[in-house]
Specification:
single chain, alpha/beta, Alkaline Phosphatase, subunit A, Gyrase A, domain 2, 8-stranded mixed β-sheet, 4-stranded antiparallel β-sheet, binds adenosine monophosphate, binds zinc ion
Length: 398
């Protein structure tokens, strides 16, 4: 009898572990397809994304200004616009560190928490709340923000192919329950890269769209084979606008270049007078121009929610969509595609697809900061205060 009880006790002790393996808890996967313009979904090239959109929800994300990669990836995972999340550009100078410049290509600065600590991304807050996280790339995920990195993260390397990125995520999901992530980020750069080099209407962009769509298909199939329930949020950071050499604004035609520091050029320019203050610079730039509008940072239109952070340069010039602002010869060919324009430009609108989240139908145009409260709701973690209204999270039916 005693033996029977002992066996029964062993059986029941083992039961929860079995139940755990059989019934997997859902994983939330936040996917970014960099530069996937909202209307790329209508090109008939994306059977997987289109099916997920039809079964779940879809819409268009309005990026935050400036419509660049780092500010918008950080906006999506913090719910804060660039002015409040601290990542005010792909390139920026902070008056508290006047001798250095943040830029995505400069690992020393890009990996320094100083630049990121003005906000807290979802993986840090979720991690603190006991949710296991893993990042298959995301701007900021390599940085110990507020002292925390995800337990699984990789140093950004664009040579790690899209198929390998999917395999990495699936490998994480093959782990035993105790070390399996419940929140994963995944990032693809190839659609953006093709958009810059060949323009949004090119065969190369179409090929990149179709390839990433196939990888999303692999992810969904791989998770299905594991019996792993998933809540997928698939987003982009901004769209893409065609550009060419005929539509160029040379700042040198307006002001002698040594008198300015061009922190950023392209679809928008961030400009500091080199001397700290220089009335000639303001006079030359703040007057009306044919294909760009410049303003002091404190006088930018309110709808841009931009200019209060000390990291925003003294003068911000925004080109008419399709135009390129240069300070000297271009660093890379102008002809192709670009983003960074006013976030009201329809061609800056970005992809949004949600599947398995309880969200359904066409959600229309939504500010990208609204993804954050939705994400936190899916993770079951209280969101930190943010700039978001919660309009998207409120649409959840469960
Ligand atoms: P953009 O200049 O706004 O088009 O930035 C897009 C580029 O950012 C892509 O070509 C990526 O290679 C690069 N990128 C994306 N994530 C990271 C990262 N975590 N670290 C450095 N560069 C990145
Ligand atoms: Zn981007
Ligand atoms: Zn880009």
């Amino acid at each position: 009898m005693k033996r029977l009880i002992a066996i029964l006790l062993l059986f029941f002790a083992a039961a929860p572990a079995h139940a755990d393996e059989d019934a997997r808890t859902p994983v939330t996967v936040l996917v970014s397809i960099d530069g996937f313009r909202a209307d790329y979904l209508d090109r008939g090239l994306t059977p997987n994304l289109s099916r997920l959109a039809a079964e779940g929800a879809h819409g268009k994300l309005r990026p935050s200004f400036p419509t660049k990669t780092f500010p918008n990836h950080y906006a999506i995972v913090t719910g804060k616009r660039p002015d409040t999340n601290g990542i005010t550009g792909n390139n920026m100078i902070d008056p508290r560190r006047p001798d250095v410049k943040f830029s995505l290509g400069d690992a020393k600065q890009a990996l320094d928490p100083f630049w990121w600590d003005e906000a807290e991304p979802a993986w840090v807050t979720a991690g603190k709340a006991g949710v296991r996280t893993a990042t298959m790339f995301w701007p900021g995920s390599e940085v110990a923000i507020h002292g925390v990195r995800p337990p699984d993260w990789l140093r950004y390397d664009e040579h790690i192919g899209n198929a390998q990125r999917i395999e990495t995520v699936l490998d994480w999901m093959r782990r035993p329950a105790a070390i399996r992530p419940a929140f994963v980020t995944l990032y693809f750069d190839t659609v953006d890269t093709a958009g810059h080099r060949f323009g949004p209407d090119s065969a190369e962009v179409n090929a990149a769209i179709a390839e990433v769509d196939a990888r999303i298909g692999d992810l969904v199939a791989g998770l299905g084979a594991l019996g792993q329930p998933v809540r997928l949020l698939i987003v982009a950071d901004h769209g893409m606008h065609a550009t060419d050499d005929a539509r160029v604004i040379q700042l040198a035609d307006l002001i002698d270049l040594p008198s300015i520091i061009a922190v950023e050029t392209g679809p928008y320019a961030a400009i500091e007078p080199a001397a700290g203050t220089d009335d000639r610079v303001y006079a030359a730039l703040l007057k009306p121009h044919d294909h760009m509008a410049c303003s002091r940072r404190e006088a930018l239109p309110e709808r841009l929610h931009y200019g209060r952070n000390p990291r925003v340069a003294a003068i911000i010039c925004i080109a008419e969509p399709g135009w390129t602002i240069l300070a000297g010869p271009p660093a890379y060919p102008v002809k192709g595609g670009a983003h960074g324009y006013d976030n009201q430009d329809p061609e800056m609108l970005a992809l949004f697809v949600a599947s398995g989240t309880g969200l359904s139908g066409d959600i229309g145009i939504v500010d990208n900061i609204e993804v954050y409260p939705l994400l936190m709701r899916l993770l079951g973690v209280a969101p930190l205060p943010s700039d978001a209204s919660g309009v998207l999270a409120k649409r959840l039916t469960k």
